[in-house]
Amino acid sequence: MPAGLDTAHRTAARVAAIRAPHPGTDALRRKAAPRSAGGRAAAEVLAPVVHISDRAPRPPRDGAVRDAHAPRIDAQNRVNLGKALRALGWTPETLLVAARENGHVVIRAAADSPLLTRVPVDADRRLTLPPAVLVALDVRPGDQVLAGVVVDTAELHLFAVADALQLLTGVLPAGSQAEGSPEPALRAAGGSRIKGRWRAAEGSARTSGDGRAGD
After folding, report:
1. Exposed, middle or buried, 15 (CB in 10 Å: 0-12/13-18/19+)?
2. What value does the mean pLDDT of the chain take?
3. How far, in Å, CA of 144 to CA of 142, rounded?
4. CB 175 within 8 A of CB 113
5. Taking a C-beta distance cutoff of 8 angstroms, is the pair 13, 19 a contact?
6. Which tens digits make up the pLDDT trace of 136-156?
7. Which distant-in-sequence residues (6+ apart) come within 8 Å of 116 by Cβ?
8. Could you say which of 82, 134, 173, 187 has the lowest number of CB atoms within 10 Å?
9. Please, what sign has the CA dihedral across residues 130, 133, 135, 137?
10. Would you say the pTM of this structure is higher than 0.70?
């Protein structure tokens, strides 16, 4: 048995520890070729190789400090982003404005401007998304927003989670949903979600205050 301090033995042990469990093209055995009618073996060929890894180069990372949050919008159009605002140093006294850039919304601390949309912050560090931001992201109460905190530029980027997941998984072909799965409810015209007035079912009798049936 070789000594533990032997350089070749130590290097071989380290290489074996990090070697992938799947064989490479140089480790595949040659496929046995069938013999021809004359008894001669045909030319040997390598076994088929199945590519299981994506070797496409990734874009280089810039090393900027970023943090991600995915809160859900409540009934008052608020999102809880306490950790994100704390990382940026924003308080309820900070004037925040929103602008639409490249299909998403960017929130910054800036001076008051009539050309930008103000975003209020309450004492619990919750952002109240104004209608302009909701329309820009195409979200409503109950939906999730992806909040990306960029500390280097002191910006908060908002993106609809539904759009982010679709970019990740790709657009599914039409009819890919399972049969019988409920379809998403259509929004009312103009974006209003006010329910209509209650109406009695057809054929039901109406009663007055004294319990008598109405005309």
Report:
1. exposed
2. 76
3. 7
4. no
5. no
6. 999 999 999 999 999 999 999
7. 97, 98, 99, 110
8. 173
9. negative
10. no
